[in-house]
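Re: that chain you flagged

S.,

Sorry for the slow reply, it's been a week of failed gels. I finally had a moment to sit down with the sequence you sent. For the record, here it is as I used it:
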Amino acid sequence: MKQHWNKDWQQIFANNNLADFDAIWDLTTEWFEEPNKRRGGWSGVIKLDLNTAEGKVSVFIKRQENHITRTLLHPVRGMPTFQREYQNILRMSKHGLPIMELAFFAKRINNGNLQAILITKALDDYIPLESERFLDSGDLINNAQHKEKLLVAVADTLRQIHRHHFQHNCLYLKHIFVRPDGDGWDIKLIDLEKLKWRFFKQQAVFRDLYTLYRHAKGWSRKDHVRLFQAYRQEKQLSAKSKTLWHAIEKRILDKRR
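Prediction finished late last night. Pasting the structure tokens below so you have them in one place:
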């Protein structure tokens, strides 16, 4: 069995009678997300409160069985999709990028079935950017300057991951978590299963900015332009930036036809 504990979490789980794979696998509680049955198996998520000396802390526990993806290194048997997310969390954590905190990962073969568990700390103080609370009519945006800081914070986060040639590859608003921080914002990215490293950084930039623009429901074109300006760190877009912007808009128009 392959297993990885975050040392800061291992004792917490032991104190909650969840010291090993079997104890975590056998947990019976309501699903936070109903099991997804595909890829030849199933995959589901629960949310659990753990007792600590400082009070309760929440974690998300993802469990799956025979829910695999095939890669060049695992072309036949495949690998658990959570293993890919686990590896991506480690890769991004190495660079100090703003993502969720890993607590535990393990995989095993049990009676011929490939099982995996991935546990991360819940972002309880954060809100997904898809929430209507972030719209101009919502309660989280105080004024134009406050919204400007939000767009700049998101842009800075994306530029930070692209600097390391990472492509989120599934950059929807529901995967960008935000927490008010004084008059600013703290950002975390989730759902790293499809993350890719690109040799050419521009591929990551185009794909993620295009995906965000296309799927950001409720955002105005002005919002997208301002985020793009903040991403490029240009008040007046350069010729190179304009070329990229027009390419993104053209792709979106082509998709809508």
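What I noticed first: The CA atoms of residues 210 and 248 lie 5 Å apart.

Talk soon,
D.
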